[in-house]
Specification:
By secondary structure, this protein is of the alpha/beta class. The chain contains ten helices and 14 strands. The strands form two sheets. It has a twelve-stranded mixed β-sheet. The chain is globular. The relative contact order is 0.17. The model has no long low-confidence stretch (mean pLDDT 94). The structure holds S-adenosylmethionine. The site of S-adenosylmethionine has 19 residues, from β5, β7 and α10.
């Protein structure tokens, strides 16, 4: 790594901000803390699970914190812990606390299936976790079990209740819409926003991993919205916050609904995301390859500036937009749980 070729686009110095060659500032880091999961969502992972990363290849909390600091010193101000299922990492609140201390001006978030939140949410809040997204694909326990291949609706729902009671507002609920499985539930999800400040986000099913072409279960955001309106809900737009979701509100409802249309209308033009995999690779796009291993140089004693130079070089390869996900020429990658969804 010390022999890295001359890079015409130097890494930002501490205090500056990561940019790619398309002029996009990168201020958001998603950190996968494990590739393991306790669900087997049919759109994400095979029923039999996957070959998990060996323990020695996974970054320790200290290593994650060190790398988070390299990104933070160069402009990252939002960090999300994801996976796999991040709550499977033992003592996760200790990691959150360490990253909070190292990155005091960053807001810290987590995407989870909620199964352990009833037990852990107080400690996570105390450690500095500012925001939570909980994945919830169905309000019906049987459909939940069909999609996740685990009969654990009650656990996820208890986690959502606990997070809400702990004051997480809005509480984001992610629902991947699958034709013939849960697409009829969209109006029921909208009902959830009537009394409570849930931010329900309907995700388009993205072809990924083994499913490297558009799947028959795919439903567009537009179709979901039409179904919601057909069920009698009038939707008014909510001011865009710059994130991937376009949001709407039923007048008078406490919460909002959003559509993450990664397939039908990608949002690459405003992408500000950087990714770190559980085994310490930097990836510049969910559809990017795992090319830059930061773990080995880190363990070999690389300085922050050297790590930053390598990150910048890889970031310079970031495309203006990932390949068209409807066109069937999608890179064959691991699963989203392996990169960090
Ligand atoms: N285990 C955590 C969870 O369930 O939220 C975090 C990891 S999971 C990979 C992150 C998000 O990716 C979840 O909301 C999941 O529904 C979503 N996801 C996984 N595969 C997807 C796919 N093929 N298309 C759209 N969303 C997907």
């Amino acid at each position: 790594m010390r022999d890295a070729p001359w890079n015409p686009h130097p890494a930002p110095a501490p205090g500056e901000v990561w940019h790619d060659l398309h002029g996009r500032a990168h201020t958001y880091l998603r950190i996968s803390v494990t590739d393991r999961c306790n669900l087997r969502c049919r759109y994400c992972m095979p029923a039999e699970g996957l070959e998990w990363l060996p323990r020695a290849e996974i970054l320790s909390f200290e290593e994650i914190t060190r790398l988070a600091g390299v990104f933070y010193d160069r402009g990252v101000r939002k960090i999300r812990f994801t996976g796999g299922e991040p709550t499977l990492r033992k003592e996760l609140p200790r990691l959150v606390e360490g990253v909070r201390d190292r990155c005091p001006e960053a807001s810290l978030h987590m995407t989870t299936n909620g199964l352990t939140l009833e037990r852990d949410v107080a400690a996570l809040r105390e450690a500095g976790l500012a925001g939570l997204n909980v994945s919830l694909d169905s309000l019906d326990p049987e459909t939940f079990a069909t999609i996740t291949r685990r009969d654990r609706f009650a656990g996820t729902w208890a986690g959502i209740e606990a997070a809400y009671a702990m004051g997480y507002r809005p509480l984001k609920l992610n629902c991947v819409v699958l034709r013939g499985l849960n697409d009829h539930e969209a109006p029921a999800f909208v009902e959830l926003t009537r009394e409570r400040a849930f931010d329900v986000r309907f995700l388009e099913y993205m072809p990924y991993g083994r499913a490297n072409r558009l799947q028959p279960e795919y439903v567009s955001g537009e179709e979901i919205r039409a179904r919601i309106e057909a069920a009698g809900h009038r939707l008014e737009p909510v001011l865009w916050d710059g994130g991937p979701a376009r949001s709407w509100r039923v007048p008078g409802h406490a919460g909002t609904i959003g559509f993450i249309t990664a397939v039908s209308h990608h949002f690459c033009g405003t992408c500000n995301r950087l990714r770190l995999t559980a085994d310490g690779f930097f990836v510049h796009c969910l559809y990017g390859e795992k090319r830059l291993n930061l773990r080995d140089p880190l363990r070999d004693g690389a300085e922050d500036d050297e790590l930053a130079a390598a990150i910048q070089q890889e970031l310079d390869r970031k495309w203006a937009a990932h390949p068209d996900l409807t066109a069937g020429r999608i890179p064959v990658l691991g699963t989203m749980s392996q990169i960090g969804g």
